[in-house]
Amino acid sequence: MRSTDQLARGELSWRIAAKCDGGACVRVASAGEMIFLGDSKSPEGPTLSYTRDEWEAFVAGIKSGDFDAV
Predict the structure, then answer these.
(1) What pLDDT digit, counting tens, does each position of 59-68 carry?
(2) Cα separation of 54 and 26, whole Å?
């Protein structure tokens, strides 16, 4: 099995928001059942990885307002 760092260094197809302002954005990629997040300013830097289920739960929480400031 390859490490996240190996995948992050060119084997993933990264997506960045169209409204990214000069590279200060989160980048996202997927491979199989995993979702990867990285910093667009530091493409060789560390990445975070989540299962699809974890990612979908996070996105559902955003949509339902779980992370809105009170």
Answers:
(1) 999 999 999 9
(2) 17
For residue 61 the two structure tokens come to: 């929480």
Q: Which amino acid is at 52?
A: R
pLDDT confidence band for 69 (50 / 70 / 90) = confident
Find tokens 């954005």 and name the residue: 25
Residue 33: is it exposed, middle or buried by C-beta count within 10 angstroms (0-12/13-18/19+)?
exposed
DSSP 3-18: -HHHIIIIIS--EE-T
Alpha-carbon distance values, 20 to 1, 15, 23, 41 (Å) = 32, 11, 6, 11
